[in-house]
Amino acid sequence: MTPVRYTLTARILHWLMVLLILGAFALALSFDDMPLSPRKLQYINYHKWLGITVLWLVAVRLLWRLKHPAPELPAHMPKHEKMLAHLGHIGLYVLMFGVPIGGWLMSSAKGFPVVYLGLIPLPDLIGKNEELGKLLKEGHELFAWGLLLLAAGHAAAALKHHFIDKDDVLRRMLG
Prior knowledge:
mainly alpha, Fumarate Reductase Cytochrome B subunit
């Protein structure tokens, strides 16, 4: 039987990831033009910790989703909107994995270790390569902006459903 609303676990993971992704993005914007300093290095570490947390949580979220299907989209939705919704969700998952993995790859290529929460050293994913590190930085930033734009479109669609279509799509994720 298809559920009417998302499970409590799915809702908690969804909103927690919203906060973590926005926090990581805000941190990146705050340190991007900052001169090298202990404060900048600490902000970069916080950013990495948030990114790795997002990576672990999106894996948990995907596993949860595979065992607990999402509610069906409203019957009144046109076929093209349903297709866009499915493609948007796939894109969000790809980018929620891709952005943190890209950041981890970038750190590895630039020769900066990722030490989760300052306690758990994570392995380098690739060897040090400054040129590749620059390319990965550009990709990481581009994908992060893509994630933010796709998430904004996702939120706009939810608001459209709530205020224009007057259906329960948004309420299913609110509880």
